[in-house]
Amino acid sequence: QVQVVESGGGLVQAGGSLRLSCTASGLTFSNYPMGWFRQAPGKERDKVSCISRRGGSTYYADSVKGRFTISRDNAKKTVYLQMNSLKPEDTAMYYCAADRDYCSGSPQYWGQGTQVTVSS
To answer: Cβ distance 17 to 36 under 8 Å?
Structure first.
């Protein structure tokens, strides 16, 4: 059974930092490109960042480019999202997903999400 579990969310002041982690089990982690998505209340879920199977390729939404960094450790079956210079508009539920193809937008496996709240 595949499980994707996010952690690291919380409440932070604007300008602060958080690091999200996502661990996947029940699959061969290194075979899956990974992605982070977010959904704010009343809005659609948006793609935030993606990383290829070995980490050689990454994608960032324009809204987070230069502030967020995605990385992965295949030995630990974990993907990270380092979020710096956080803004109130970054407030959302953040989801990790294991993708069929790099940055496809329709991942195969989803986590339950971790809440990030940025206060002004």
So the answer is: no
Pairing state between β 46-51 and 18-25? unpaired
Work out the number of other CB atoms within 10 angstroms of the CB of residue 5.
14
CA distance 95 to 78: 14
**Gap between the Cα atoms of 22 and 107, Å rounded:** 14
Q: Is the pLDDT of residue 105 over 90?
A: no
Q: Would you state the structure tokens that stand for residue 56, as one six-digit string?
A: 């050689």
Asked if residues 119 and 11 have their Cβ atoms less than 8 Å apart, the reply is yes
Q: Determine how many CB atoms are found less than 10 A away from the CB of residue 76.
A: 11
- Span 24-75, pLDDT tens digits: 999 999 999 999 999 999 999 999 999 999 999 999 999 999 999 999 999 9
Task: Please answer whether residues 78 and 22 qualify as being in contact, where contact means their C-beta atoms are separated by less than 8 angstroms.
Answer: yes
Cα gap 95→8, rounded to integer Å: 11
Element (H or E) spanning 29, and its range?
none
